[in-house]
Design a protein that fits this description.
This protein has helices spanning 2-15, 17-20, 34-41, 88-96, 98-101, 114-126. The protein is globular, with a radius of gyration of 21 Å. By secondary structure, the chain is an all-alpha fold. The protein folds into two domains: 1-28, no CATH class; 31-126, Cytochrome c-like domain (Cytochrome Bc1 Complex, Chain D, domain 2, Orthogonal Bundle), CATH 1.10.760.10.
């Protein structure tokens, strides 16, 4: 992609000022929507279908749900000791570093970007 942009920029410079206006590259592509972020970041291991379990439990209704309470899902041992309900604070900590929230939890995903975590959490709240 950088080679393509460099080529477009070179063509625009060579063509003069009138042509340069036609070769602008957008710098603000906007904030990604929650559904896309969920699909790309969470969708491999989790579903929003309440009847579908993958490597992780369904996340339909996770916001406000007691941790480790999806019937029929085989949670890791750490979840047996989890005595809380998923809210913004817990989900944010969980997405940052799962074992810090539930020691012994099995989830390799970590999201260091606060904006992406916020987008995922907002989307999960909508799916309640």
């Amino acid at each position: 992609m950088p080679v393509l942009r460099a080529g477009l920029l070179a063509a625009a410079v060579a063509a003069g000022p009138a042509a340069r206006a036609q070769f602008t590259v957008p710098t603000d592509v906007g904030k990604p929507d929650g559904a896309s972020v969920f699909l790309n970041q969470c969708g491999t291991c989790h579903s929003l279908d309440p009847n579908e379990q993958r490597q992780g439990p369904t996340l339909k209704g996770v916001y406000g749900r007691r941790a480790g309470s999806v019937a029929g899902f085989s949670y890791s041992a750490g979840f047996a000791k989890a005595d809380f309900t998923w809210d913004e604070t817990r989900l944010n900590a969980w997405l940052t570093n799962p074992p810090s929230v539930i020691p012994g939890a099995v989830m390799p995903y970590r999201q260091p970007d606060a904006e992406i975590r916020e987008t995922i959490i907002a989307y999960l709240k909508e799916q309640h």
